[in-house]
Amino acid sequence: MMLTIKDLQASVEEKTIIKGLNLTINPGEVHAIMGPNGAGKSTLGYVLSGREGYEVESGSVEFEKQDLLEMEVDERARAGIFLAFQYPVEIPGVSNMEFMKESVNAARKERGEEPLSAAEFLKTAKAACKQVNLPLDFLKRGVNEGFSGGEKKRNEIMQMILLQPKLCILDESDSGLDIDALKVVADGVNSQRDGKRSFIVVTHYQRLLDYIQPDFVHILADGKIVKSGGPELAKEVETSGYAWLEGHEEASA
Amino acid sequence: MSQWLANVLDRASTVNDWLSPVRQTALATLREQAWPTRRTEAWRYTSLHEVAELELKQAGNSASVANAEAPAIAGLNSLDLVFVDGQPVTDFSMLTLSAGVTVTQLHGVNAEQQGRISELFNQAKPAHHLFGLVNDVLAEQGVVIDVAAGADVQQPIRIVNFVTDGVESHHRVLVNVGDNAKVTVIEHGAGNGHSMNTAYAEYVLGSESKLEHYRFAMHGQEAIHMGGSHFKMGESSRLNSTIVGYGSRLTRIDTDVIHAAEHAFAKMNCIYLLAPKEHFDLHTTIEHAKPNGTSEENARGIVGDKAKAVFNGRIHIHRDAQKTLAELNNRNLLLSRGGQINTKPELEIYADDVQCAHGATVAEIAEKELYYLQTRGIPRSQALVMLNFGFVQELVNQMPNKALSEWLQPLLRERFSAMETK
C-alpha cells in the first residue's frame, strides 16, 4: 500500500468540505477522481499536500507507512508527494531554473544523493522542457511569470518529470487546455508511468481520461466517494453527467 | 540641544587643520541647529534618543590601529584604502595608482592642492544634514581622490571603513572626477559592536565624466551609522550608483544628486535589508536645477519583524529645469506584521515641460508563494530566502560590476537568513 486514507474529514474556514473519505492506492495505480464542482476535489489535493488553512478534523492518512498528517508541506514533498496545481502561482524574480534546481536538490538530499551541479541540472532541465514542449527560455523566466494557462500546466508537468515523485496528484491539469496541450500533458504523465509511481488524476471531465488510462475511477460528491469502478465509470459520467448524483444523495441520506 | 551635540561643538573648537576656514562656516551653521525631535520633518520616523546622550570613546588621531584587512572580493582587483574607526591602516605612500589618479589622505593634502580641494568641500553636500555638519567640523581623517581630466581608470577604488565596539569616529571622502574622466568608487562600511560613526562622501563630476558608485553600509546590529553620498553632476555627466544598506541600532543615510548642469544622467538603485528590531532610514534627494536632466531611482527594501524602515525620496524640479525626465520607485516587502515601513515620495515640480513618475508600494510576504515552493520540497526558511532574493535580484543584476554582484550573492543569502523570524 502506498497511500491509505481513512475516514478523512477536513474543513476550510470552519466549513467541512471532506466528509469521511476512504481511499487506498497501491504502487503503480492510476486513480481518477471525478465529481461536480464543489465536491471537494481540489480540497483533497490541498489537504494531502499540507496546505495551511486546510484543517483535518478526523481520520488518518498513511503514506508509505508514515503518518502524512504529521509532516510539514516540504517534508511531504520530499517524501515523494507531488501536487500539480490547477492554478499555479506566479513568482516574479525567482527564476524557474533556480527554483527547480533547489527543488531537485532538496529531493536528492533527502535520498542521500549529492546535489546536481549547475551543468548537470541544466542538461536534465533542458530535456524535461523539451518533453513538455516549452521553449528553453522558460527556464530563465520567473516562475510561471507571464505564462499562459496552458504553459503553466505544462510547467507543472515538467516539474513532476524532474522531481520523480512517488505519488502525483494532478489537480484539473486538463482545465483550460486545447487538445494539443492536453496531449502534451497526458504524454508527460504517461511517460512517468513505470509500474511503481502512482497517480491521482482529479478532473471534472472525462476527456483527459481518454489520454491517461485510469485503473480506477471514483466519483466524489459532497466530500465523499459515492461510487468507485473501472474506466467504464468515466464513460458513464460522460453520457449522463453528474445529475444522477442528486438521486444518489437522497437515497443515501 | 543634546549633551552629545554640545560635546561635538566643544570638540570642534580643537580641530585645527588646513580645512579650518571651511569648517568654521559649517560650525556656525551647526551652532544654530536645533536638536531634531519627532516634529522635525527630516527625523519624523527616526528617533535620535540613542544619540542624544551617547558617550563613546573618540577615535584617536594617531594612526596606531590594529591591522585590519579588507574582506577580499574575488575578481574585483580594487585599490583598497582601509580604515579602522576612520583611522588609516593602508600605507598611502605605498600605493600603486592608475594613471591620472591621485589619492591622498584628507590631512595630507599638500599646500598647492589645498585651495582646489577645499573648494570640493561642501560642493555636493547641502548644509541641512545635521550629521553632515557634525562630520564637517570633526572629520579629520578621510580620503581625497582626484581623477584627472580624460583619465579612464579601470581599477575600482574601494574605501573600507571598519567600526569597532565602543568607539565614535568621523570619516570624510572627497572625490573630483575630471572632465571626460571615468572611475569606479566603492564606499564600504562594516564592523560590529556598539559604535557611532559618521561617513560622508562628496563627488564632483566634470563634464561628460562617468562615475560608477557603490555604497555598502553593512554594519552590525549594534552600530549607529550616519552617512551620506552626495553628487554634483557636471554637463552630460553620468552617474550609476548602487546603495546596499543593512539596518542596525540606527542607520541613516542621506543622498543628494544635484543636476547642476544640463544633460546629466543619474541612476540610483538602493536596497535595504532589515533584520528583526533594526532601524534603517534612507533619505534621497534629486535636485534638477538645470534643463534636460534625467534621473532614475529604484529603492527596494525588505523589513524583518519589529524592524522599522524609513524611505523618503524627494525629487525637486526647479523652474528652469525644462525637459527633465525623472522616475522614482520604491517597493517594500514586510516579512511579518510586526515590521514597519514609512515611505514617502516627495515631488516638487516648478517646470511645466517635464516627465516625472513616482510610486511606492508595501507588500507582505505571500503565503501562497511560500506554500508553492514548499510543495516542491523546499524548506520554508529556504523558500523565504528565495522570495527575498526574488524581490531584490533585479537591482543586484543591474550592478554594472559583476565581481561585486557575485560577491554580494552569498552575503545576501546570509543576510536573509538573519532576517527570518524564527
TrEMBL record, chain B:
Which Pfam families does the protein's record reference?
SUFBD_core, SufBD_N
Query: Which Gene Ontology terms describe the biological processes this protein takes part in?
Result: iron-sulfur cluster assembly
What are the residue boundaries of the SUF system FeS cluster assembly SufBD core domain, all occurrences included?
167-391
InterPro entries noted in UniProt? Fe-S_cluster_assembly_SufBD, SUF_FeS_clus_asmbl_SufBD_core, SUF_FeS_clus_asmbl_SufBD_sf, SUF_FeS_clus_asmbl_SufD, SufBD_N
Task: Give every SUF system FeS cluster assembly SufBD N-terminal domain span.
Answer: 16-159
Lineage: superkingdom: Bacteria
Q: Which family does it belong to?
A: Belongs to the iron-sulfur cluster assembly SufBD family.
- This chain belongs to the protein called Fe-S cluster assembly protein SufD
Native source species = Aliidiomarina shirensis
**The encoding gene:** sufD
